[in-house]
Amino acid sequence: MNTLLEPGMLVRHPGQPEWGMGQVQSNVKGRITVNFEHAGKVLIDGGRVELQLVLDLPH
């Protein structure tokens, strides 16, 4: 799934729910930069963490 992530997509980190929702900034060779609501910009190793795509936004 991580290979399909593109800038602008919204994700959550399954092991860090307190970080809130994040927006993918870049995805280069499995290194995914995400800007999270409560953690700021974080570099994720896509080989170790499977980010969860957010499809439905709360109304």
Keywords:
single chain; 5-stranded antiparallel beta sheet
Give an overview in words:
By secondary structure, the protein is an all-beta fold. The chain has one domain: SH3 type barrels, CATH 2.30.30. It is 0% helix and 41% strand. Strands 4-3-2-1-5 form a 5-stranded antiparallel beta sheet, with no helix packed on it.
Helix content: under 10%
Strand order of the largest sheet: 4-3-2-1-5
* Series of H and E elements: EEEEE
Strand elements, count = 5
Count the domains. 1
Output the structural class: mainly beta
What CATH calls the topology is SH3 type barrels
Q: Based on the structure given, which CATH architecture is correct?
A: Roll
Assess the beta-strand content as a share of residues.
35-45%
Q: Figure out the total of helices.
A: 0
Largest sheet, strands/sense/barrel: 5 strands, antiparallel
Mean pLDDT: 95
In CATH's first tier, which class applies?
Answer: Mainly Beta
Using the alpha-carbon principal axes, give the shape.
globular
Short summary:
The protein has 59 residues and is an all-beta fold.
How are the SSEs placed, and which strands pair?
Elements lengths: L9 E3 L9 E7 L2 E6 L3 E6 L6 E2 L6
